[in-house]
Amino acid sequence: MNPAKVEDKLAVNKFDIDKEVHIRIREDICKKCEEHYCLYACPASCFKITEDHITFSYEGCLECGSCQIVCDKEAVDWALPRGGFGICYQYG
Amino acid sequence: MKQIFDAIVVGAGPAGCACSFTMAKAGLKTLLVERGKFPGAKNMWGGVFYGPTLNQLFPSFWQEAPVERYIKRHRLSLLTKDASLSAEFTAKKFGKVPYNGFSLFRAKFDRWFAAKAEQAGAILASGLQADDLLWDGNRVAGIKAGGDELPSSAVIACDGVNSFLSEKAGLRDKLSPRDMKQGVKEVIHLPRNLIELRFNLSGEEGIAWEFIGSFTRGIPGGAFIYTNKESLSIGVVVQLSTLAENKIEANDLLEEFKQHSEVATYLAGGKLLEYSAHLIPVAGSAMMPALYTDGFLVAGDAAAFTLTTGLTLEGANFAIASGLAAAETVIRSKQIGDFSQKSLSYYPELLKKSFVLKDLKTFKKAPHFLENPRIYSLYPEIACDLAEKIFTNDGKPRRKIWKLLRKSMERKISFWQVFRDLKKIKKAL
Ligand SMILES: Cc1cc2nc3c(=O)[nH]c(=O)nc-3n(C[C@H](O)[C@H](O)[C@H](O)COP(=O)(O)OP(=O)(O)OC[C@H]3O[C@@H](n4cnc5c(N)ncnc54)[C@H](O)[C@@H]3O)c2cc1C
Predict the structure, then answer these.
(1) B166 neighbourhood in chain A, CB within 8 Å
(2) Cα–Cα 20 to 30 A to B358, which of A20, B3, B21, B403?
(3) What does pTM read for this prediction?
(4) Does A33 touch chain B (CB under 8 A)?
(5) What is B5-59+106-174+287-353's CATH superfamily?
């Protein structure tokens, strides 16, 4: 069976994960945010919500930039991982 | 630091490769900087590559470039939850040299293209990211990358849709989610013979199959299946703003699409090889940044040079053509020894003469038109409903097709509204 959940799909991809975190979120802003567009915009399900708290894990990031564009509160501090790190597509 | 390079190209996608190839070939000292481990490592697309521009650069490129299949068939399907209405076009011409389009993988193609630039004399630095611009007063004077300062007479930003460099150069504002579509895609392995049987293909023939319908739940966008040699590329492409506002994830739409009875049979037995995502700038000229400033040019997706007509999505050919125009501009600047904004204004002049800005102008109204949600749910529904009425034999006396259409539209939409939408097609497409 092929995976249907994003987390499981990401497992087939090749990543060279950087030790440095390339995306940070401003939790103080996220706490007050009602829309949480990031949750839906991220195609790699990197954003998770627990109670009133947004958490972010950068490891599965596909570097598309959606989260930063969709966040109208500028709470996503998005940068690219260092050169050579991150997603490494074999097909693309 | 001493200046070694005439030009630094940031990004080894189709725009950057075409640009650096051309400048290097003309004898300019050219550096091509790519943040991926290799060119293509960061790049995903549908995709169908349309060849004429590349064919001018490398005649019969398909003989050496890593293409998958040439596109012999184009199919469009309208889907509702449990029905589907399709149209297919194929022509002998599409099966003959120079072919019309090719399916290909970016992780392979971009690598090939960048190697071409290297062979022409450009220096390729993979795994290196341009972090910032180098300034000399108001003039862009190079880049900062990997802790080094690299000066050059010209910087060409071919850094794709998120182009941080054009933002840093002050040529564009923050991007709007309304102007973006998000594409998510799976590459699914299937044996060659199964692909050919299922899709009615032989040899190197391929199909480009586009879908619109209920699976996007009214969100502007659609889905695609493209055949590769031994795999399928299957994905959905949806407007980012509406996706988030409706609290829907693109992957859920992709799953819904894959499970549609009309789609699932084609995928059966296939194995997932890769899951990828990328944005597409789709607002055309409305979102175009300023294209140049002193010592600095923007090409490809970074300049939002893509074309969507609802039935087709093109960007790679626009990237190449704009990369070439940028190269020609910089070569001229080098000859006259002037990289000022005034001198670089040659760039938009060239683009206006090519299909790049001509097409964007012709389809200026298309992006707005394509936001009409009726295209993605109501019209496919009506079309499928009408087809069902036409093809169903329930043993009762027949009614005129015109009356069936009226029945299909009943309580859903007025003829007046349809007429208004049709009128908009005329303007937009
Ligand atoms: C889902 C989807 C389907 C598509 N389908 C089609 C299709 O069928 N046909 C078609 O013609 N087009 C299609 N496109 C569009 C097409 O992929 C793009 O228009 C095209 O890739 C643009 O080329 P580019 O060179 O401008 O940018 P990209 O191909 O995005 O290349 C940019 C390069 O710059 C690099 N880079 C970025 N920032 C830096 C930095 N700071 N330092 C160093 N390197 C950097 C990136 O790693 C990348 O290699 C599709 C796009 C998507 C997302």
Answers:
(1) none
(2) B21
(3) 0.97
(4) no
(5) FAD/NAD(P)-binding domain (3.50.50.60)
